[in-house]
Amino acid sequence: MQHGGRGFRDDNKRHKKGDMGRGEYFASQPDKRKRNEDANAKRERAGNVAGQGIQYSKEEIEAEERRPKRKVAVLIGYSGTGYKGMQISGTERTIEGDLFQAFIRAGAISKANAEDPKKSSLVRCARTDKGVHAAGNMISLKLIVEDENIVEKINAELSPQIRVWGIERTIGSFSCYQACDSRWYEYLIPSHAFLPPHPSSWLAKQLEQLADEANDRSSYEGRQKDIENFWEGIEASEIKPILQSIDEDIRWEVVKALQGEEEASAKAEKNDEEPGAKLAKTEVNATKVNQPDADQPAEHHSLSDAEMERVLRLRAATKRLRNAYVDAKRRYRIPSSRIDRIQAALDKYVGTKNYHNYTIQKTFKDPSSMRHIKSFVVNKKPILIGEGPDESKSEWLSLKVHGQSFMMHQIRKMVGMITLMVRSGADLKTMDESFTETRFSIPKVPGLGLLLERPVFDSYNNLQAAKHGREALRFDKYEEKLEAFKESEIYQRIFREEEERNEFGRFFNHIDNFKEPWFLYVSSMGLKAMKGYERSPIAEVDGSDGEQDDN
Fold this sequence. Notes:
Substrate binds at residue 185. Belongs to the tRNA pseudouridine synthase TruA family. It comes from Dissoconium aciculare CBS 342.82. By secondary structure, this protein is α+β, with helices and mostly antiparallel strands. Among the domains are: 45-179, Alpha-Beta Plaits; 230-330, no CATH class. The chain is 36% helix and 13% strand. Strands 1, 2, 3, 4, 5, 6, 7, 8, 9 and 10 form a 10-stranded mixed sheet that branches. Strand 2 (123-124) and strand 3 (133-143) form a beta hairpin. The radius of gyration is 28 Å and the shape is globular.
């Protein structure tokens, strides 16, 4: 029996085209012009979709004055909220789609080339996915740039969410994707993410129990010294008064309901993902108390007035208690000693290491798992975001990583690891094992806080640009505008989304109440606590989160 081979399928049948001769095969291919015409007709039937080019009539194209195109680099920034990513699409609204249409309307792309971005040789430096922001990114293409006010004209055609910082002439063969040496990413995270797990949570109880088993209680408490008694203080000053004000007949039901929300959100579904993968997804499997319509049973019409009144009181009291915890965490201000510990954890990433545990579908022996991190730094000055006086604002930390390239989920898992280590009072030496063949389950933090800071083009600047008399490609000259844009269009949007959805709070509730041993390597027992429970080799099935540079 013949298997495989030229022209054969796995079922031992020949491919249809495998029976053709070469001449017959090529004769069967549709005419290229006809194929393009059919594609255009299909787009016209579908209507004008945001993200496509603009079609002009033959008369309009012939009437337009022909002007020279030049190869340029366009330095841009954008908030990804409301967009289906960076890459142009024929069916969705994208950053490139809006940019391309703005180029056309500003006169930077001729009507003859307005239909298809490929005619302008459009290339992106770094792809970002749905909702991901970029303070600095770049596209390279051919534009008409003889108008000295072209940047202002393009920006006038764009929403405030997208800005063109500048346009620079490049050499004719320039590709911003190929010329990029490295990239800076920023991850913005609320400082309360580094609070230890609540004492009543499953993880907190395990950490204490395992510290005793390892005879490490003193060292464990020492690593949490700068945060000791935080939760006790909140319970006494914030939670106890609320509990005392709740009617006695529902008081403990409220407490159990709130604990039930956290436990329910932490249940992992058994599917084809690796253990712990579900924890990175911020959609909460909310319980009845957490759902506006679920407080009322399906047969709520059969409830008496008294029973309905009790259900409503239970719902209101649970919401009040939950909000008290959320507000207390948002008022938290991280001490400098804890920031130093965060930096010590980030320093573990610097250099060339094996990141097979920090992505998906990679093994330790895969050469592409090796990545070089130039720096990973936490800004020691936290950012206060929100309205009103400073004490009512939420505190956030800026983490910036500079690397040559990143794999899928890598940055979010890197942040997930250091956050888990610091908040759990772990011995940071455990991180060293994550770069070895030992398999770890590392949750990825929400994609909400991730943004592309800027790409770097040092090799091009020092060699090609200098040789051919072109301007160096740097974002430094736009620093003031770029920082103002980050504050108004990116930071504020991240903050508002967190205010509305409490993604980070829900994410760490998942972690703290996930009753499996996958993350107990953060305990005083280290990897011994996971013996027999190493990470499953089954790959995660999930989409990209925006920091993947490899295509």
